[in-house]
Amino acid sequence: MTDADVVIVGARCAGSAAAIALARAGRKVIAVDSARFPSPTISTHLMWPGGLAELARLGALDRVAALGAPRLPLASVEIPGVRAVGGYSAVDGISYALCVRRAGLDLALVETARAAGAEVREGTRVTGLLSAEGRVAGVEVNERGGRSYALRAPVVVGADGRRSTVARLVGAADPYLSRRDGRACYYAYFADPHEPLRAVASQWRQGAELGTAFPCDGGLTLVLLMPPDARTTDFRKYPEKEYDRTIDELLPGLGERLRGCARRSRVFGAAGLESYFRVSAGPGWALVGDAGHFKDPVTAQGIRDALRFGRLLGESLAGLPDLSAGGVDAVLAQWERRRDRECLEAFYWTDRTGRADPVGPLDVEMHRALRADPALMTRFLDIYSRIIRPAEALTTPRLAGWTARALLRSGTDRPALLRFVARTVRELQQERKQVNRRLLRYGHETHR
Ligand SMILES: Cc1cc2nc3c(=O)[nH]c(=O)nc-3n(C[C@H](O)[C@H](O)[C@H](O)COP(=O)(O)OP(=O)(O)OC[C@H]3O[C@@H](n4cnc5c(N)ncnc54)[C@H](O)[C@@H]3O)c2cc1C
Questions:
Q1: Does ligand 1 come within 6 angstroms of the Cβ of 45?
Q2: Whose CB has fewer CB within 10 Å in the chain, the N or C terminal residue?
Q3: Has domain 182-270 been given CATH number 2.30.22.10?
Q4: What distance in angstroms lies between residue 220's CA and the mean position of ligand 1's atoms?
Q5: Which atom of ligand 1 is nearest to 291's Cα?
Q6: Upstream peptide bond of 38 is cis (omega within 30 degrees of 0)
Q7: What residues are paired with 141 via a beta bridge?
Q8: In the CATH hierarchy, which top-level class contains the domain 6-45+101-179+274-350?
Q9: How far apart, in whole angstroms, are the C-alpha atoms of residue 333 and residue 175?
Q10: Could you tell me the distance, in angstroms and rounded to a whole number, from the CA of residue 252 to the centre of ligand 1?
Q11: 3-state secondary structure at position 443
Q12: Is 290 close to ligand 1, i.e. is its CB under 6 Å away?
């Protein structure tokens, strides 16, 4: 006897996406979440056109758009003295970004899952797994302030985030590939009266500091600072003071953008983050979203990947006539390989992007090139929507051209630049080897 075809633990981005795909295909799916929605969570929430296309594929974009976040058809990147602005290539006809606070975004996903026919049980925590004949066969749950009971299903999907209970219970919590993130995240919301600027998602870098301003719903702008990890101790001791000081003294471009804006929230933070891949499929179980794979928030890929691979997991399972019969584990393993094929290179690119290296001569040349050529800016933004691979924009001839220009510029510390370029080239080669080794292991084509 089973209670559902699939039980999903966690009902935000990954869990709702999987639930929507399964329910649409007529499968009985129960998603449980310890939260009650609407419920905020520690996460900023910029979505590039590629992420919005995933919301549209799930049928959730209209609900999300109704929350009123302004469309962001432009992106800007600025270092001292150079500002580049550009637009996006369209993904499924969508050529803008959106920044939507998580309480509203996640509720819209839960509502879409319910409308598709999924059952979502809120305030319900998974505390254990059931097993039968060496397979996961369901979960034990605890209702907040209420009863405990079991839910039986031939497949259990852990969509329960970075501290995944399911990952721990199946013995997959230790990642097989991981990197400590180079920066911490501290963010707050500002009332923002600058209407014309509310169409632009902006980033500033100065020294080793990085800050962003993303206009969002509620007439607010989300301001995320990503100081080098080494500043975490100070931020933890005095979050508000360090946050305000960083804007005023270390990122004057961002300070200028916020003139006339008023901070309307406390400072939220996440530090000591680790990016990783966990083994994400086994007999009767899978880990999707952050439960199986996490990337440094610096490139804002997490929501998109959670939605995409949640949906793909649901669709793959829905393709099987009977989830209690054989074939489930092969489908789960195939789904995991696809996720890794699509995410491995993005993982290394994000790791490099999130390093706390100070702005250097190569960054200056890159920003000048982006400023001079809006089409190149769009090409670089295409990486964020995952339209192209990072290596297709950061080509060797481009890197060589910027290096040559930087070497010719007076005042460049040439030995330091050459050391940096040599390190970057070495790392890019190593990354390609590592990605290709894994792709080969999975039987995929390798990258050139
Ligand atoms: C500081 C920060 C900033 C970020 N900024 C961005 C950004 O700008 N853009 C972007 O795309 N991504 C961003 N990300 C990444 C993004 O937050 C995640 O990738 C995304 O939330 C993953 O969704 P998920 O559904 O996998 O997990 P989560 O959103 O973590 O949801 C997991 C759910 O599981 C539930 N749960 C956990 N354990 C149990 C249990 N035992 N029983 C029942 N329920 C359980 C939780 O209550 C929660 O609701 C950021 C992340 C961080 C940390």
A1: yes
A2: N
A3: no
A4: 22
A5: 26
A6: yes
A7: 126, 149
A8: alpha beta
A9: 17
A10: 31
A11: coil
A12: yes
What pLDDT, in 10s, does the model give residues 293-345? Answer: 999 999 999 999 999 999 999 999 999 999 988 899 999 999 999 999 999 99
The pLDDT tens digits for 50-94 are: 999 999 999 999 999 999 999 999 999 999 999 999 999 999 999
Residue with tokens 């040349």: 365
Q: How far is the CA of 14 from the centre of ligand 1 (A)?
A: 8
Ligand 1 center–CA 290 separation, angstroms:
6
How far is Cα 425 from Cα 432, in angstroms, rounded to an integer? Answer: 11
C-beta 270 within 6 A of ligand 1? yes
Classified as helix, coil or strand, 436 is: helix
Q: Do the domains at 6-45+101-179+274-350 and 182-270 have one common CATH topology?
A: no
| Domain segments of the chain as ranges | 6-45+101-179+274-350, 182-270, 367-441
d(CA 198, CA 445) in angstroms, rounded, equals: 42
Ligand 1 neighbourhood includes 125 CB (under 6 angstroms) = yes
**Which protein residue's CA is at the shortest distance from atom 41 of ligand 1?**
126
What tens digit of pLDDT does each residue of 179-232 get? 999 999 999 999 999 999 999 999 999 999 999 999 999 999 999 999 999 999
